[in-house]
Design goal:
Blueprint lengths: L2 H13 L11 H10 L1 H16 L17 H8 L5 H8 L9 H20 L1
Bound molecules: zinc ion.
Length: about 120
């Protein structure tokens, strides 16, 4: 199974969660994404993941990702990449240690795929 297939399986699994599937981009988010372009948005995502999710110790874990204000925040809630507890519960990524490069790339790929699908709606 390649990376793209495993990402689609996870996204399909998430789509069956009432809570996760309730998140969608609003018109304002879509316009922002269009205006900035995907590469810039993904550089913001990289920054959020590095600062708010990757460290071994996160004092405000569970509260570090706002519910609105940036398309990536919405994507993080929709894909259960919002905090380390959700990353553990949904993606089996262990808590209390720094994220590996591979894990960061997996999270970024999930976010990017979700955003792309959402923009096509
Ligand atoms: Zn969470």
């Amino acid at each position: 199974m390649n990376n793209e297939q495993s990402i689609n399986i996870v996204l399909d699994h998430l789509a069956h969660s009432k809570f996760r599937s309730s998140f969608h981009l609003k018109e304002k988010d879509k316009n922002y994404l269009k205006e900035k372009g995907m590469p810039i948005i993904m550089s913001h995502a990289d920054d959020f993941i590095t600062k708010r999710l990757a460290p071994a110790v996160i004092p405000n874990d569970g509260k570090q990702t706002p519910m609105r204000g940036h398309p990536v925040f919405i994507a993080q809630h929709a894909t259960a990449c919002c905090c380390r507890s959700c990353l553990y519960k949904w993606h089996k990524i262990p808590m209390h240690r720094e994220l590996t490069m591979e894990e960061k790339n997996y999270i970024l790929a999930l976010i990017k795929t979700w955003l792309t699908k959402e923009m096509e709606k």
